[in-house]
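ok so for the tutorial part 2 we go from a plain amino acid sequence to predicted structure tokens. step 1 is just haveing the sequence, like this:
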Amino acid sequence: MAGFRRRINCALSGVFSEKRLFIQSDGGTRYFRITPLSQLMIGTTALAAAGWMAVATASVVSDFVATDARGGAAVELREAYQARLDELADERDTRAAEAHSAQGRFRLAMDQVSRQQTELLAAIEERRELSTALDLMRDRLRSVVAQRDSANTKLLAEAKAGGSGDDLDETLRAVSGRLNDVAGARDLAETERARLAEQVADLRLRAEVNTRRQAEMMDQIDQAVAMSFGPMQKVFAEANIDVDSLLAKVRADYSGEGGPLSAPVMSSRNYDDGATSRFDTMMVSIDRMNLMRIAAGKVPLAVPVHDTFRFTSGFGVRTDPKGRGRRKHAGVDFAAPKGTPILATADGVVVAAERESGYGNVVRIRHELGFETVYAHQSKIRVHVGQRVSRGEQIGDMGSTGRSTGVHLHYEVHVNGTAVDPMTFLEAAKDVF
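step 2 — the prediction. this is what the tokens look like for a chain of 433 residues:
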């Protein structure tokens, strides 16, 4: 081994000459001999260390630059996402204001329909009374004319049966007196006839005015019904609800009739078939609209949060927020501060108010017509099982219980046991409620 080192040192002596390092101390002077092989090994080691330092420094700088670039991109993405959320919040506030305005218009239309319906019924009753009075006056006029004709016939018969002499004078006096009486009766009859004819003409004019008023009121009611009925029809159509089946169920629940037994009444109305048919059609439309108004109160067509909020997740397949891959999300999420009131979206009965796995504190409300709504992750439940609640009534406070990444409300709508997209109902009702 020593011979091998000497041969290598001899070979390297032309490149690296032998070096000696002297160290002087109080005890004397010592030196260390650095052979060419040792110099080569030291140089190689220094060069390797320098290369490793260069590579490591480049790697650190590259990672720093990449991290900074990714951080900048993340900041820009987060700012863009926040801006988009702000835009959606502004749009949601605008839609809420439009829905509130539409609801006000709907109430005004319903009030107008109610007032005009009352006026129409009053006009119909007045027209019925006018028709009755007109018939009575016509009968009275016919009776007066018949009395006059009967008196004239009787006088002629007495004149033909009269005798001669004193009897003739007496008969003539009697006939003259009778004629005077008949003439007076005739004059009175003519006066009465003229007065009755004037009243008949006035009644006919009033009846014509009432007919026009009824036609105008029917037009206004038709417009009000169309203004209210159209958006509600659109609500149920966009929510994929069978309107006829829905109204049949409502009609079955609201079909009570009754009252004391009274004597039959004969109507004296003298309507034309066209007006009667239009009135009947209008009443059918009003009845249908009333049934739809009742049905709308039983369908979850309201927003469960009235305070400021933002949508954080929609219905359908999404990336699981806990990192469990792609999962189905059976509802929509509303994010707002802790304690924000949660409201029932329709009339119904509470069938569950407890803590459930994944849902945390949850309330389930069963509505009529096969609907059920679910309100999850509540911080506090304010209702109990069996309690009847109305639309807009507070049922709990928003929280983050259960499987949740932050404060929000998880809201579901079920139709006959199947979860459907709640946004269908929320978007469909924005023009009415």
